[in-house]
Inverse folding.
């Protein structure tokens, strides 16, 4: 009797519809709970906290918009966003370098694997180690100063790279370029590998030089990923955190917006203001994202549609190139 | 004749310029690391008396590494990091692929909603949320708990889900249908048929998630505060911020020890790392 029931239960559980529902529930429950607990619940609480004067422990008091007013009026909060400009310029330089090296390394150059490895490896070094490496690197009279002296610079003319407020944010943005340029480069190399090789041959036959090849063959093929990275670097430079956090700890005027926020929350126990800061920045990032959507829709068209168009164009170009090649061959004979 | 030799000369010059630029860039990429290696092999006296870029008298002096290893408690740090890495990878691969299976194979109410929830979450910068995540972890008594930290690291992961969804879309649905016809349950389809086919996607996720988990410093520092027991490889270096802050011969040795596993992995799995990054970037 019991056995029969069990069998029918097993049958019921494996029968199509029930099994499907069970599968959906079991497979989505855990990831969804994680998402809610670690993303949406904190998000909601953060919005709530931003209206209170509070710490992690102790009493809290509702203060309305006072925290938001503080964010915009305090010297160390909203104004910290101007440091993002350094990182934004840094990000543009990083992308330009990544494009340059990716182009060089996709051409058949000897030792390209080695160069690729050298330029990429910094990406695998952990953040805190990067911090120590560059504290050492920039210390007065140490690595950078020594090397610059090899090239004929005088030590007295060199600034204190991490203390001098004129240069220290540039020094930090440079560490970020050092760390992430190789990763961008690898992405671009990957994208370039998917560009049709015959197009380069066709371009060579047409007598294109390497800049023209880049402009008319390579770049159209990787436009999407370049523009995507360009736009990502805007929200990335708004939310810079690790370079100053691990290298200077935000001292000497290098505290970016999130470093200030982190200190307010975890050192000064001012959770209310920190939450308001986070909400303001998230709002800004959402604005940038909306702008990005509009931008890509306006200038690039729908990505998928775009790539299909490209394919059609490519086929046409191939045919033309073939016809051209045939023509020249015949002419030569 | 002259025309072609001129073009050839131009080509050679272009090549030389290319090599010069690449060597110059590699020099700056490697300089910070090489200077670290040089310093790590110096005796304390040498470190005090010579310029940082002067080579050490011998590359056989490994006392700095031994001291850094014991001072930063690295044996424990590596043990903890390996435990965390194994569970985080297992957890995020399993949950990520399961969710991707459901989202890409079944049409049901809420499918699009769940996709959008994850998409929106990927826009929120992780650091911004930490103010209130900390409070939640505190309420759950998950501060200073390795299991708690593992769950947190699995939970804040969106990219792997996208990689799996993309991959599922390339596997024909007729495969599932055939298995169902043969009496396989939906769970069976996933575990017996699809999961083994997901290998390339799993490798990609392992690389991306593995690098970020092994290198994670901020969260590890915040949620594993008891540095005597719960130290990870990344946070073990924290030891050197205190009174040891200027003794770079030890610090560099410590930095190199933490970098070695990454270097070995890189040398062994270069191709997979490159292609993993490229695959992961399409949606990320």
């Amino acid at each position: 009797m019991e056995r029969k029931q069990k069998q029918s239960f097993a049958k019921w559980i494996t029968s199509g519809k029930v099994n499907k529902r069970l599968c959906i529930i079991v497979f989505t429950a855990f990831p969804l709970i994680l998402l809610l607990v670690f993303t949406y619940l904190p998000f909601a609480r953060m919005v709530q906290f931003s209206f209170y004067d509070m710490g992690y422990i102790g009493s809290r008091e509702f203060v309305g918009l006072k925290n938001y007013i503080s964010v915009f009026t305090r010297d160390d909060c909203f104004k910290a966003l101007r440091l993002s400009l350094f990182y934004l310029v840094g990000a543009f330089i990083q992308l330009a370098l990544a494009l340059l090296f990716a182009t060089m390394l996709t051409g058949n150059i000897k030792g390209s694997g080695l160069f690729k490895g050298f330029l990429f490896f910094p990406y695998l070094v952990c953040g805190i180690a990067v911090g120590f490496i560059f504290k050492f690197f920039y210390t007065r009279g140490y690595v950078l100063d020594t090397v610059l002296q090899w090239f004929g610079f005088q030590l007295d003319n060199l600034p204190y790279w991490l203390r001098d407020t004129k240069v220290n944010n540039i020094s930090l943005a440079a560490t970020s370029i050092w760390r992430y340029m190789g990763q961008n480069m690898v992405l671009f190399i990957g994208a370039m590998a998917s560009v049709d090789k015959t197009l380069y041959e066709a371009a060579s036959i047409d007598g294109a030089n390497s800049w023209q090849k880049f402009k008319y063959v390579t770049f159209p093929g990787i436009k999407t990923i370049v523009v995507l990275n360009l736009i990502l670097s805007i929200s990335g430079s708004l939310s810079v955190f690790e370079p100053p956090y691990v290298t200077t700890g935000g001292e000497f005027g290098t505290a970016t917006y999130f470093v200030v926020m982190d200190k307010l929350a975890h050192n000064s126990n001012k959770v209310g203001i920190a939450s308001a800061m986070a909400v303001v920045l998230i709002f800004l990032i959402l604005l940038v994202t909306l702008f990005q959507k509009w931008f890509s829709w306006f200038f690039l068209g729908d990505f998928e549609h775009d790539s299909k168009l490209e394919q059609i164009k490519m086929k046409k170009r191939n045919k033309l190139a073939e016809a051209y090649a045939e023509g020249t061959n015949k002419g030569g004979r | 004749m002259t025309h072609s030799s001129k073009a050839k000369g131009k080509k050679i010059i272009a090549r030389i310029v290319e090599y010069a630029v690449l060597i110059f860039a590699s020099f700056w990429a490697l300089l910070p690391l090489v200077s670290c290696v040089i310093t790590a092999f110096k005796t304390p006296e040498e470190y005090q008396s010579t310029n940082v870029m002067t080579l050490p008298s011998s590359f056989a002096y490994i006392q700095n590494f031994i001291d850094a290893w014991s001072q930063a408690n690295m044996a424990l740090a590596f043990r903890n990091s390996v435990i965390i890495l194994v569970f985080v990878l297992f957890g995020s691969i399993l949950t990520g692929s399961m969710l991707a299976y459901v989202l890409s194979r079944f049409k049901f109410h809420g499918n699009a909603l769940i996709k959008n929830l994850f998409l929106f979450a990927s826009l929120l910068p992780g650091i911004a949320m930490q103010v209130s995540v900390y409070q939640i972890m505190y309420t759950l008594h998950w501060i200073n708990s390795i299991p708690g930290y593992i769950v947190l690291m699995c939970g804040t992961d969106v990219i792997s889900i996208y990689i799996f969804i993309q991959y599922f879309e390339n596997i024909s649905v007729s495969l599932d249908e055939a298995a169902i016809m043969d009496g396989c349950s939906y769970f069976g389809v996933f575990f017996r048929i699809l999961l083994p086919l997901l290998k390339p996607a799993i490798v990609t996720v392992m690389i991306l998630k593995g690098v970020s988990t092994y290198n994670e410093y901020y969260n590890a520092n915040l949620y594993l505060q008891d540095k005597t027991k719960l130290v990870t490889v990344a946070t073990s270096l924290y030891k050197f911020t205190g009174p040891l802050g200027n003794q770079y011969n030890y610090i560099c040795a410590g930095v190199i020890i933490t970098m070695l596993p990454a270097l070995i992995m890189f040398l062994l799995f270069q191709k997979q790392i490159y292609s993993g990054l490229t695959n992961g970037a399409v949606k990320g």
Summary: Chain A touches chain B through 88 residues (CB under 8 Å). Residues 324 and 330 of chain A are 10 Å apart (CA to CA). Residues 324-333 of chain A have pLDDT under 50 and may be disordered. The beta strands of chain A are 52-53, 61-62.
